[in-house]
Amino acid sequence: MNLFVEAIRWLFAPERMQGQYALPLLLGQHLLYTVASVAVAALIAVPLGWIIGHTGRGREIAVAVSGAARAIPSFGLLVLLVLLLGVLRTPEAALITFVLLAIPSLLAGAYTGIEAIDRRVIDAARAMGMTSWQVFRKVELPLGLPLLIGGLRAAVLQVIATVTIAAYVNLGGLGWPIIQGIPLRRFDQVLAGAILVAVLALLADLLLAIAQRAAVPAGIRAAGGGSSPSRSSRKARAAAA
């Protein structure tokens, strides 16, 4: 309990708002790496996931690649890329690491969102004379959006947690109090850094959970689909997470 109180005191000390390692600056760095990494990963993974879900082709390859990407240790990859690219390209090495971390969840969220749609709905849309593009834009995209946001939610949380290692290669972020505090045995500082990362992750998760719920079409919510998802939808959410 005393350690927790000391961590809170460390957080609210006046010197935390000043200097090169001021908490607002570290928070800004953490958010910058998170947003940039997830945005780049989304540009790569979401269109690919939509194509896989719409055509039904390449799912096995996507699952294999996603599984391999999840198995890569982020810290080891970051250090390896820094060594390969050089210390002057450390930001690029960090960005590549975080992008690779975010891709699997976004890819899974994109294609499972479409796969989870009842085929009878798509068949009915085609029977009405819709083209393949219209089926995707008017049926698959809105119905698959909640699971895509679920994949985004998982990706953002993973990246927020992992960006803490950026401080190890002197890139700042909220991991700096943790990385610096461990060798100094400043456990109040370490705990304070962990609290900051946890609070940021919880806030991001809350906002994305609200967005995910809002993305469920009104007709499905009215029918109870938002609170009682089908078996296929539950499987898709598990894949996206």
Explain this structure to me?
- The protein is built from eleven helices and no strands.
- With 241 residues, it is mostly helical.
- Residues 27-208 form the ABC transmembrane type-1 domain.
Structural features:
0% strand, mainly alpha, single chain, 11 helices, 241 residues
Short note summarizing the structure:
78% of the residues lie in helices and 0% in strands.
DSSP strand content: under 5%
Distance between the termini: 33 Å
Low-confidence stretches: 226-241
**How many strands, what sense, and barrel or not for the largest sheet?**
none
Helical content stands at over 70%
Shape: elongated
- Average residue pLDDT: 85
Beta-strand segment tally? 0
What's the SSE pattern?
HHHHHHHHHHH
C-alpha Rg (nearest Å): 21 Å
Break the fold down into its secondary structure elements and pairings:
Elements: H1 2-12, H2 23-55, H3 59-71, H4 74-85, H5 90-115, H6 119-127, H7 132-162, H8 176-184, H9 187-214, H10 218-222, H11 231-240
Helix pairs in contact: 1-9, 2-5, 2-7, 3-5, 4-5, 5-7, 5-11, 6-7, 7-9, 7-11, 8-9
Membrane topology: Multi-pass membrane protein
Main location: membrane
Pfam families: BPD_transp_1
